Amino acid sequence: MTPSNIRVIITITLSLLLSAHAAQRLSAQVKIDTTTVQPMSWKEAQIQRKYEWYITRQARMVADSIVHYQMPSGGWCKNQDWGLGPDTAYMHECMTTGIGSTIDNGATTQELTFLAKMYYYTNIIDYRIAFLKGLDYLLRMQYENGGWPQYYPTRGEGHYSNHITFNDNAMIHVMRFLHEVADNVEPYDMLFLRKEQKDQCRAAYEKGIQCILKCQIRTENGLTVWCQQHDENTLKPAQGRIYELPSFCGTIETCEIINELLAQLNPSEDIILAIDGAIRWLENHKITGIKLVKFTDAEGQKDARLEEDSQAPALWARMYDLINGEPIFCGRDGIPRKKLSEIDQERRTGYQWYSTKPQQLIDRHAAWEEQILGNYLY
Questions:
Q1: Is CB count within 10 Å lower at the N or C end of the chain?
Q2: Rounded distance between C-alpha atoms, residue 157 and residue 173, angstroms
Q3: Residue 313 burial class via C-beta count within 10 angstroms: exposed 0-12, middle 13-18, buried 19 and up
Q4: CA angle 341, 333, 347 (to 5 degrees)
Q5: DSSP assigned state of 100
């Protein structure tokens, strides 16, 4: 066979391969149905699981709204309904000022997860572009010390949202998202991120773990738990909203931090000590013999109170004061109280002051500790 014939065969083969690739790309651009649909709320859209839904016009309407309202910074505003329509006046203000992008209440990570699914099923490039812009936003907003603020860009110098925000698990949500992206978990695997992008996500996650360890409150008795927010410079417990005081946090935020540390493969000595210190503190601060009862009062208003019950499971308070380690409660007057009954009804019922969840971690810790000890011995 002559060299010229070989070149012809190679050219034809390459043409066929490229044609097949192009056909595959075209087939991946799934047609969006044009049937009339009723708008779906953002909350409903997030719980959709079937492939067939993600290729509908209804799904595209939600995704296009998310892309349209992505902030110049790359993030998204919280508590907006991308399906039924956001607060346009608020969105105009945010777009004009550039301030409003946040990780609070699941914002930004939820939108990115949805866009990744949409690109996974439709291959529509606009969703990938918006995803990459949002991913860059999360990486840029991380502090050098590894923490994440609640808002970026800042809402103003000295604003509480500048603090490292464990509150409502904002920082943990971001870290878990980045970890999944770095691990190429579905649907992020179909975004075909470059190795350096995934490495950036992994590095940001690891810096977050180190920030958690540095923020853990240490007393003369050793390591304890975490506050809902920590000062972005000193890493000390910091004030959040007026009723969120600098304190030991005994429930939601501390529990999710411990969960994340327990999930570490081959944990370092620092991580082991952090977990042990936090679990010990929780064991020493459980509240027994009472239960939280929610009820409707004579005026038809929802309310809550504590009642004695020797059989009730152990409770932990959301906040404990930093001096004596005793439960504290706070209303919108900003004054700490020792009893739930001493704060106003709106805050008694509008905030999760108690939880039984720490017991699950204490129970899980026993098995984890045995496993870790076994790893060291064998």
A1: C
A2: 25
A3: exposed
A4: 45
A5: -
Give start and end residues of each alpha helix (H) in the chain. Answer: 3-28, 42-46, 51-54, 57-68, 88-97, 109-122, 125-141, 170-182, 195-215, 252-262, 269-284, 345-349, 358-377
Domain annotation for the chain: domains and CATH numbers: 25-215 (1.50.10.20), 216-378 (1.50.10.20)
Look at residue 190 and give its three-state secondary structure. helix
Helices and strands, number each (H, E), in the chain: 13, 12
For 29, list phi and psi in degrees, rounded to 5.
-75, 80
Closest by CA to 211, choosing from 198, 190, 229, is 229
- Tokens of residue 276, six digits: 């042990």
pLDDT-derived band at 144 (thresholds 50, 70, 90) equals very high
Are 344 and 303 in contact by the 8 Å Cβ rule? The answer is: no
Rounded CA-CA distance 60/34 in Å is 11
Q: How far is residue 180's CA from residue 182's CA, in Å, rounded to a whole number?
A: 5
pLDDT digits (tens, 9 = 90+) for 188-234: 999 999 999 999 999 999 999 999 999 999 999 999 999 999 999 99
Tokens for 279, please give them: 């679990």
Total count of residues recorded for the chain: 378
> Nearest CA to 258 among 209, 328, 203?
209
How far is CA 13 from each of CA 25, 27, 40, 138, 376, rounded to the nearest angstrom? 18, 21, 47, 44, 56
Convert the pLDDT of each residue in 150-198 to its tens digit: 999 999 999 999 999 999 999 999 999 999 999 999 999 999 999 999 9
CA 145 to the chain's CA centroid: 18
* Residue 12, token pair as written in the block: 């034809």
**CA dist list (Å): 83 to 91, 110, 266:** 15, 13, 42
**Which residues, including other chains, have CB under 8 Å from residue 377's CB and lie 6 or more apart?**
none
Q: Which residue type, as a one-letter code, is found at position 358?
A: P
The residue type at 354 = Y
